[in-house]
Amino acid sequence: MQIFEPKRKISNFHRAGVSLAVALGCFLAVSTGAAFAAGCGQPRDVGRYDMSLTSGGQERVFSYYIPSGYSGQAKLPVVFDFHGSDSNANEQLDRSEWERVAEREGFIAVAPQGSMPMKRPGYFAWNVPGVAKGDADEEAYIRDVVKAVEENFCVDPAKMYATGYSGGGRMVSQFLCDGNTQFAAAGLVVGLRAGTPKAEGAGFVPDAATCKPAKPISLIAFAGLDDKINPIAGQGLPYWGYGADAALNRWAELDACQPPTVTTEGRVETKSFACGQGTRIVSYRLSGAGHTWPGSTASLKIQKVIGKVSFDFNATDLMWEFFSKAKP
After folding, report:
1. Half-sphere exposure of 99 (CA within 13 A, CB side)
2. Could you give the count of Cα atoms lying within 13 Å of 305 in the half-sphere of its Cβ?
3. Which parts of the chain have pLDDT scores under 70?
4. In order of start, what are the domains of the chain with their CATH numbers?
């Protein structure tokens, strides 16, 4: 895996008034010593950057944000944030606002980028195994991104978490289904899956053969009752098929969960499961919400396309609270 020099990006977070450092020099090679190979031992410039790497013989890219408290000495948690279809890494960081939380809580935010180009230049989708028809091995790329982060930044491998919006949620779901163990917990926004859809009777069910996680994992999921793109009841486009309940219940089986505690407050229904090996699953269903990231002001401008944004809570803040309590 070859890693290239990072490129400076000016983020919305910077324009909001947070002072970011200017890049000062060249990126050091991975082979410069054991301390650097572990990612620790040197400071990093604060702010959002892009980094390129070679994965599967192709040059790929990901974006990342370094908080102002980064010293290069203390090992920080990492949140990997996966964009939806017809989007990209930087747009996703604007949507999720993980930079805001990373700055406040002191962790690194990383946004990988899918391989399948869309009609709009610079916009991509994920080659999700089982439902997409691209050539790239996205799971190998994700593992390469994790490795690059471990080698180049001072991070705690036991505190790496994944979040995904829409198609990014489907990608994260399948990555976990296929037995990858890089992430200690995951958050899925309008995208929780439990394997590829399989026709059964008049509908679809999760194909158990396509979801065999290596171990129980803590999950937090969000779904809008008015989502027209990934309908909560199922059907929709061929990649979707079964509904949110089928996905949630299947993960509850896989995680060996107890029956859930269900509460409703205003427009939000919450299901909370206590599961095997100290893991948890929490599901939020939002009345009146569409195919949107709860609390995201970045999605307001496209509400006519994806439906209403819920501001009953901020999904990013809830996910970080959930991750910070997850068992490594």
Report:
1. 27
2. 5
3. 1-38
4. 7-325 (3.40.50.1820)
